[in-house]
Amino acid sequence: MIFEEMAHNDYEQLVFCYDEVSGLKAIICIHDTTLGPALGGARMWNYETEEEAITDVLRLARGMTYKNAAAGLNLGGGKTVIIGDAKKDKSEAFFRALGRYVNSLGGRYITAEDVNTTVQDMDLIYQETPYVCGISESYGSGGDPSPKTALGVYMAMKRTAKEAFGDDSLKGKTIAVQGVGNVAYTMCGLLHEEGAKLIVTDINQEAVDRAVENYGATAVGLDEIYGVEADIYAPCALGGILNDDTIPQMKVKAICGSANNQLQDDVKHSEMLAEKGIVYAPDYVVNSGGVVNVADELEGYDEERAVQKVKEIYNQMDKIFSIAKEDNISTAEAADRLAETRINQMMRVKSTFSLNEKNQFNKG
Predict the structure, then answer these.
(1) N or C: which end of the chain has fewer CB within 10 A?
(2) How far is 309 from 303, CA to CA, in rounded Å?
(3) Threshold 0.90, pTM exceeds
(4) How many secondary structure helices (H) and strands (E) does the chain include?
């Protein structure tokens, strides 16, 4: 079944990593390297089964291919999942063992932080391999990429507002924010500075209290957020939250947030949003600021340059809305089309180059 899935979706490599001494159990997946080395973070999760971990890493790696391509990066897609409890299983030996596995791939895969991994974890990986981003600033890196992810969401939201309301000003707009973690809290700060009104919810009451105290946000219950009166809904927590139950409750004109895999069913729920007249900003474009930032480290990190690249997410969103209109398709499909066009163009370039090389060899 695994090989069938890999063949069906053009995966390149799946690497199982085990280190008895440290207890490391991880899986690295390289989906596609057409545009360049595969870049994608290492997330740690207490998966119930190995099969669950494999399913997740395959899905995430493919998603990174599309995210990197749509963001205009010369990078392919890959991902690492680490099986374990982030509160109990981490150690220096643990991440250095993972670093050796990453290094064994010779630069085909570059890792970075992700869910339940930190800059400090990446520093340990860096002791074993140069193929890691998001390490400490003392190494000449950009450090924690979450503020740049937040900036990217903010820029995407401005372009989404222009699509929904005719101009990109967020002043006076009411934004319903589901989840106020590091990325969303920074995003809320940017929105507050522009004069937006915030409605927030989170399973962590401290996160809610912080947004209320510092940004004047209004707190609501976890299930209330779907039906609040607002201009824009910003899902920044769970995946699959745009579904049969939640979409009918929504009283917004646009959706733009940092959560991954927001649509439970890409086709069905894109259509439901369109029927309600809700403008949807595709999540993997909206939340690409972090990967854009860490990718800049591969050129020798320059924060000013990285910030300018992150702000280009506004223009990437512009392209997506244009494709959706011109081809009469959903914005989710338009984002995929933008990514696939880049990948296919590069495949043709490489095929032509290889053919020319072969012809030159035959002539010789």
Answers:
(1) C
(2) 10
(3) no
(4) 13, 12
